[in-house]
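queue> holo job accepted (magnesium ion)
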Amino acid sequence: MSGKVFLSFKKVSKYFPGVIACDKIDLDIYRGEVHTLLGENGAGKSTLMNLLYGLYHVDEGEILIDGSSVSIHSPGDAIDLGIGMIHQHFMLIPVFTVLENIILGQRSGKPPLLQLETFRRQVSEVAGRFGIDVDLDAVVEDLAVGMQQKVEILKALYRGARILILDEPTSVLTPQESQDLFRMLEDLKKQGCTILFISHKMIEVMQISDRITVLRDGKVIETVDRHKTTPRQLCTLMVCRDVSFEIEKEESDPGEEVLRLEGISLQNKGGLFLLRDISLRVCAGEILGIAGVDGNGQKPLAKVISGLQKPGSGDIYMFGQNITGENTRSRIEKGLSYVPADRRRDGLVTDFRIWENCILEIFYTKPFTRGFTLNARYSHEFARRVIREYDIKTPDENVPVKNLSGGNQQRVVIGREISKNPRLLLVVQPTWGLDVAACEFVYNRLLEERNKGTAILLISTELEEVRSLSDRLMVLFKGEIMGEVDPRTVGPAETGLMMAGEKRDKSIPVV
Ligand SMILES: Nc1ncnc2c1ncn2[C@@H]1O[C@H](COP(=O)(O)OP(=O)(O)O)[C@@H](O)[C@H]1O
Ligand SMILES: [Mg+2]
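queue> job finished
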């Protein structure tokens, strides 16, 4: 595809204290293409787009539209230039209707009520032109996330956007909603819209893009044509080394039952069910995955299993023994290790040094204590072993954890938890914010643990991840298990239906 250059970045730089977020970016975007920015966390993708949308100011270089230099000092300037941005967290007002949200902030001479019908006609016209099917009178908070995203897109189009920026738009969507979005983007493209798409999910990048630009450390590494590249090549460009993309694992050989949940329910203060009648079991030497879109009960489930929260009803067993009433410490003593989703809040004390973080929950056990005193020598040795085995980039174990990068912080948590030789490993979002190489490392460690006979419960919103790692897979939706599938035989589409609330025991049309 050799399109006409519509939008250009010329040697655009953006500095933050101590970081060059964008480093002399040269990039041409063609009219009517879907151009994807791909890169590890921190590569500078969002910053570059925030510069285009006027949320940040360009420190050096310039942005050209149709060949002329433009100055963008605010989102207002960007909107006037026909640039729209769909944020990862929507900016809609939940209690307003779709129409009210879309026309919010529009200038008009007449009193708003008199104008409403005019606005309605205009918005319907735009929606019709772009084939966007939404009920203008629906209240936004009643809409599914995918629909809210469409409202955001309609809002941008109504304001005259010709360039649409979508920053990781599918991270909040089910696979079906993502496919819906992609069909819509295809339509927008046909209507002449130019789309800037940010993602780190290889499958969708290969599906939707015309061209892909890989960013690394704030620099453009290469722009490639989708038809002339492969996921492997893109991964290599992203991390600058060859990585194996598929996870290879042997058949599992499950042993004794380690964890069993029976009819676990939990309600919040308002009586809403956070968890409803959850039953599951995990055996030694297998990985049970829990898939689902974020916010469907993952957090309460992890809390109930780790002992941080008592269930409202139901029972929890470890090795056949009822532990429902036992606290976290006693579960840890029975062999539980827990890798929480939010490592900075729940997994680490970031002001503490690495070695202190390595013994957070076990400092009172042998051999970390001798009599009443801490065995400092053993504790330091333990930390050095974690650093060595988990390849943590640090001068030594005395560095405060807050000075490590996100990926290295996660290695501290995973290294610490696995080095305790757990019998049950509860892992939530283990690769959140990690780059491809670090993900691969974590996957291999988890599989090693499983092969050694540890029971693993993996809760993850990354469908590809949880499908490829798990031996059995359950889907969580609004706090309820929708069913169990064999990830080797059941594809992402059917799993995705369950993520959207379809139960497996009903007859599901296969898409
Ligand atoms: N507001 C900010 N203040 C300071 N540093 C920032 C800010 N926004 C981003 N950064 C830094 O700039 C770099 C690029 O970040 P970002 O553009 O968010 O990357 P990406 O979207 O590719 O993950 C990172 O090192 C990040 O820590
Ligand atoms: Mg980003």
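queue> The chain has three domains: 5-239, 247-335+422-511, 350-421.
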